[in-house]
Design goal:
The protein is α/β, with parallel strands linked by helices and 300 residues long. Helices cover 45% and strands 12% of the residues. The chain is built from 12 helices and 6 strands.
């Protein structure tokens, strides 16, 4: 499944980011804790240049906690400052402040050497892919609704300065992807997390890809959420194989078949409505109703 999405407005947003990154002291990049590799925009690393970077693994409440710890350790071994958080919960504020203090220490030392005794506010550019939670993060930092939020990509339209305090300024930027996903799995993961326009997706194929992964990595979560009976699953799987339905993972298709019947997504003729069922399963994943799931591990 090859998914590509790079609407024209992102080119302008990337140019603006390249211009404005020169104005800041550090870059705060949000990634999704469920897929930190797929949600790293390689352009951001390049545009950041020598600027200090703080990596925030957002939506950590939806990710497998043990895997998230591996990612934090992975980044720290690379000399990067990294934190896991749920942007809706303000408990992360003290950790963020400490990280920014460490990252801005060099700037303050340079100011002292230049004879600047007055402490200037730290300027940080906040960036990430679409629908990663930047606006929610900003609202939590401010303690009030300032930036628009939404569960679809493209809510933030342009760069805007936000004063957090006399010591800290944030430059908010729109969510930006990159022109081509060289790894097909990256496109699939971005689509699963809602960072790609749903209207261009084949949700049935996307769901089968998710089920193929989950039945290997988190079968217990699938079985619990949808009350899967193992014997019934085997019979359904065998029926698909006998019917030569081998274009997809037959076991993933058997899961979707059972889930469609259990959730009542049935068409006329008692046939599963795979389109509706796929949308239901993907929504369960995105919302966390399926459980805490990570799509990537550092070693992979």
């Amino acid at each position: 499944m090859d998914i590509q999405w790079y609407p024209g407005h992102m080119t302008k947003a990337r140019r603006n980011m390249e211009r404005d990154v020169k104005l800041v002291d550090l870059v705060i990049e949000l990634r999704d804790a469920r897929a930190p590799y797929s949600t790293e925009n390689p352009d951001i690393r390049r545009l950041s240049g020598n600027k200090k970077r703080l990596i925030l693994l957002n939506k950590a409440d939806l990710a497998d906690g043990s895997v998230t710890k591996l990612w934090i350790e992975h980044y720290r071994k690379q000399g990067l400052e990294a934190l896991a958080l749920d942007a809706r919960n303000r408990d992360f504020l003290s950790a963020i402040k400490a990280s920014i203090g460490r990252l801005s220490a060099e700037k303050e030392e340079r100011d002292r050497k230049r004879g600047i005794t007055e402490k200037r506010p730290v300027k940080a550019l906040i960036c990430g892919i679409p629908n990663i939670g930047k606006s929610t993060f900003i609202n939590s930092v401010l303690g009030r609704a300032s930036a628009k939020t939404g569960n679809k990509p493209g809510v933030t339209k342009g760069n805007q300065w936000i004063s957090v305090s006399s010591e800290f300024l944030l430059l908010d930027t729109p969510g930006v992807l990159w022109p081509k996903f060289d790894d097909k799995r990256v496109g699939v993961n971005l689509a699963l997390m809602g960072s790609v326009n749903d209207e261009i997706l084949n949700k049935e194929e996307l769901c089968l890809s998710l089920l193929s992964y989950l039945r290997e990595a988190y079968p217990e979560l699938l079985d619990k959420r949808y009350e899967i009976d193992k014997e019934e699953l085997e019979r359904t799987c065998e029926a698909h194989e006998e019917g030569l339905m081998m274009l997809s993972d037959s076991r993933a298709l058997a899961y979707m078949d059972l889930i469609a019947r259990k959730r009542g997504t049935i068409k006329r003729g008692a046939q599963p409505d795979y389109e509706r069922c796929a949308a239901l399963i993907i929504d369960d994943f995105r919302s966390g109703r399926l459980g805490r799931i990570s799509l990537e591990r550092p070693q992979s």
